[in-house]
Amino acid sequence: MIMSYVDARLEFSSAQALTATADSTNVVDLTQTARQIGAGQPMWVHFNVTVAADTGNSDETYQFNIATGSAATLGTKIATMDIPRGTLVAGYTFSMAVPVERMERYVGVEYVLGGTSPSITVDAYLSDQEPYTWTSYADAI
Predict the structure, then answer these.
(1) Which of 74, 115, 135, 137 could, after both became Cys, cross-link 59 (CB 3.0–4.6 A)?
(2) What percent helix, strand, coil does the chain show, rounded to 5?
(3) Contacts from 3-6 at CB under 8 Å and sequence distance 24+?
(4) What is the 3 state secondary structure string of 89-114?
């Protein structure tokens, strides 16, 4: 079994509780020497749902975007995923490919929540590890 650890310097969200549209807690500055990963390789943003999404009113929507920019405020969406309501249960993991040819200095995640009472808690991080080779584990392993 292959096991990976998340580098805190590449983490966008750590148990980030969301109840409205928001940016990830952290933005990664790709020019930092300690963060230079995946040169010439595909990159991924991996997500782990730690608290299930609210779907109680049946009108909640969840969209996750990878965003980039020349400043830490980001601004340019380079990948978007609409998540089907009902799939975002605790422990659900999924990944988005990062179009590296469109990345600028900073990269982060935008969480777009809609509907009456959306809420979800997620972890997200940048990696050069392909999705099929990793497994998400609870803290304190």
Answers:
(1) 115
(2) 10, 45, 50
(3) 3/135, 3/137, 4/127, 4/129, 4/133, 4/134, 6/123, 6/125, 6/127
(4) CCCCEEEEEECHHHCCCEEEEEEEEE
The pTM of this model reads: 0.85
Residue by residue, pLDDT tens for the chain (141 residues) are: 344 567 788 899 999 999 999 999 999 988 876 656 666 788 899 999 999 999 888 899 999 999 999 998 898 999 999 998 788 999 888 999 999 888 888 999 999 999 999 999 999 999 888 886 555 556 655
* Three-class secondary structure of residue 133 per DSSP: helix
Contact residues for 136 (Cβ-Cβ < 8 A; gap 6+):
46, 48, 91, 93, 123
- Structure confidence at residue 95 (pLDDT): 93
- As given in the structure block, the two tokens for residue 83 are 């998540």
**Nearest by Cα to 38 from 102, 106, 98:** 98
21, 109 contact by CB (below 8 A): no
- Token output for 101: 């040819």
